[in-house]
Write a structure and sequence with these properties.
single chain, Spore Coat Polysaccharide Biosynthesis Protein SpsA, Chain A, 44% helix, 234 residues, alpha/beta
Length: 234
């Protein structure tokens, strides 16, 4: 029987995140409790601020990529050498012992899963959406919850669909749910509420809900991106 202990490659797509990249790399080094993290790959989509310098200074390897989160994450996955890929958004901070929690699930036979999520906010509205992340249904999933997946399964699914400029995490996770049991780990990543605070919580959640609905009703990736540009990015 093989005694190989699986290793983790952490993949973080970024674009002009000089502050948040420091925070997330600090959280990773503070909260990791095993020696199984093989590498941290920061995949940069062409930052013009100090993101790259800050990432290198805090121990990550930087990969230059074309812009687009799906493209960036796929490129990170091709460069990764760990057995498990852990996709992390730059403004989601992993909990204490996140690496051990992931490896425990892998050892239990789960090939894919995520953490629950909470916002760094006392808003009851956001607390409700955080609570929903404990429900193991694909409608309650999103990239902010981070995602661990064996490299084998990721390759079997052909990675993220690069025609999606937005919604790429959800589209990928929907394919995962059809194929494998999905594990939601009980500890939480802490996500910045900055987008909600800047744009209005109820309004932003409404528009995210509309993107879900449009996708369900068959909208193509370009339509979703147009809606996002008009109602969320603007």
């Amino acid at each position: 029987m093989s005694t190989h202990q699986p290793t983790i490659s952490i993949i973080i797509p970024v674009l002009n995140e000089e502050k948040y990249i420091k925070d997330v790399l600090f959280a990773i080094s503070n909260n990791a409790v095993s020696n199984r993290i093989k590498e941290i790959l920061v995949v940069d989509g062409g930052s013009t601020d100090r993101t790259v310098a800050n990432a290198q200074k805090h121990g990550a390897m930087v990969i230059n990529s074309n812009r687009g989160r799906a493209k960036q994450m796929n490129l990170g996955a091709t460069k990764a050498t760990g057995d498990v890929l852990y996709f992390l958004h730059v403004d989601s901070l992993p909990p204490k012992g996140f690496d051990r929690a992931i490896l425990n699930e892998i050892n239990q036979g789960f090939e894919v899963g995520c953490f629950q999520m909470r916002f760094n906010s006392n808003s009851p509205f956001l607390k409700f959406f955080s609570w929903c992340t404990r429900i193991n249904h694909q409608i309650c999933r999103g990239g902010d919850q981070s995602l661990f997946i064996t490299r084998e399964l990721f390759n079997q699914l052909d990675g993220f669909n690069e025609s999606y400029i937005v919604y790429e995490d959800n589209e990928f996770i929907q394919r995962v749910y059809k194929l494998k049991p999905f594990k939601v780990i009980s500890s939480s990543v802490t996500t910045s509420a900055r987008r909600y605070e800047e744009r209005g919580m109820i309004r932003l959640q409404y528009h995210f809900g509309m993107i879900h609905l449009k996708h369900r009703l068959g909208a193509n990736p370009k339509d979703l991106y147009q809606y996002y540009l008009k109602h969320i990015a603007a």
